[in-house]
Amino acid sequence: MTVTFDDDPSSSPSTTADPAQSLFARAARGERTSRPPVWFMRQAGRSLPEYRRLREGVPMLESCTRPDMVTEITLQPVRRYGVDAAIFYSDIVVPLRAVGVDVDVKPGVGPVVAHPIRTGADLDQLRPLEPDDVPYIDEAVRALVGELGPIPLIGFAGAPFTLASYLVEGGPSKHHEATKALMHSHPDVWHELLSRVAAISAAFLDVQVRAGASAVQLFDSWAGALSAADYAKFVLPHSATVLDSVLDVPRIHFGVGTSEFLPLMASAGADVVGVDWRLPLDEAALRVPGKPLQGNLDPAILGADRPVVEREVDRILAEGRRAPAHIFNLGHGVLPGTDPDVLARVVEQVQAVGASEAAGPPGSA
Ligand SMILES: Cc1c2[nH]c(c1CCC(=O)O)Cc1[nH]c(c(CCC(=O)O)c1C)Cc1[nH]c(c(CCC(=O)O)c1C)Cc1[nH]c(c(C)c1CCC(=O)O)C2
């Protein structure tokens, strides 16, 4: 089986056959590259008609256990956009389900947990994850690494806080009140919960890295609900456990609404700090000096008029130059209603940077 790409993969995403030497991997290691590599969180998924067609009649979490589907869905945005990295198609709750947690992903809602964890006894739902629990992950990553050739595959896991929030609340939550109540009223149960979830996420990443993923991203999507002090005390040590466990590949640590404690996110053991759209990258570069940054186009702005999107991309490219290295991305995931052609134009605009610089000094920087 071979994949055909709309764009020549040897010219756009990388110039070498080794994904560890790709533009993305070099930027993730902190090298200044001729242009920022570009990929998008949630680049696979409902914004793509080819995804919706393939997923018809197959529940989300079932699709994640079918290596043929995982491979195809992961490759779809790579083919369509010529992005510089693929992100593994799965979900943060896949390893929870694999250890027996009764969790499902409800369309339009998100993860829903049948028996929320509120007491020490509820922790019995969380046993360690063994590689044999997720043979389909190993198989899909290996297939993808073969198909992708020089293009790096990013593996991922949910960070302990974000996963714990779903487990404690029983589903998506605006205010995370049950989570915060548990954290503060029963810190012993909280820390045991986060240790168990951290071990599960670490094991999930380990399967992906051993199967050939070139980098990993830890998603702490809801950490922005916390104060810096609570993050430092109740969450950071557990996220650090996950990041410290990763063998020899760059680690991206991403949160939403975490600008106020970006240095803590960096200190948890990230090689690259993901930044949402609230904080300009030049300001982020001052907050986490020396760290490569990833981000940070507001996904909602992709719906604005074309000149607005172009101006925003230029602004982010310029601000990203203040970091030692910049990986262009959105500030959070692609929204389901996003027009794929808009994303295609963003990729073109970012990938044109190197070309115009090679031809002469940039006019707009
Ligand atoms: C919080 C979170 C989840 N899952 C994830 C996060 C962290 C990233 C973030 O903050 O966006 C991570 C995730 N989920 C998915 C990916 C795939 C890779 C990619 O980024 O392209 C990744 C990296 C596929 C998915 N995960 C999900 C979909 C949509 C499923 C569908 O087709 O209905 C996809 C493609 C489902 C899901 N799973 C989750 C949510 C909130 C949802 C959306 C629910 C909805 O609005 O329908 C939990």
Main sheet specs: 7 strands, parallel
Helix count, per DSSP?
Answer: 14
Summed over residues and divided by their number, the pLDDT gives a mean of: 94
**How many structural domains does the protein architecture include?**
1
Separation of termini? 43 Å
CATH topology: TIM Barrel
| Small-molecule components bound | coproporphyrinogen III
Classified by CATH, the class is Alpha Beta
Rounded radius of gyration (Å)? 19 Å
pLDDT < 50 runs, ≥5 residues: 1-15, 358-365
- CATH architectural arrangement: Alpha-Beta Barrel
Notes on the structure:
- This protein is an alpha/beta fold.
- It has a single domain, classed as TIM Barrel, CATH 3.20.20.210.
- It has 14 helices and nine strands.
- The strands form two sheets. A seven-stranded parallel β-sheet has the order 1-4-5-6-7-8-9. Strands 2-3 form a two-stranded antiparallel ribbon.
- Strand 2 and strand 3 form a beta hairpin.
- Helix 7 packs across helix 9.
- The longest helix is centred in the middle third of the chain and has 24 residues.
- The structure holds coproporphyrinogen III (CP3).
- The site of coproporphyrinogen III has 23 residues, from strand 3.
- Its EC number is 4.1.1.37.
- This is Uroporphyrinogen decarboxylase.
- It catalyses: uroporphyrinogen III + 4 H(+) = coproporphyrinogen III + 4 CO2.
- Homodimer.
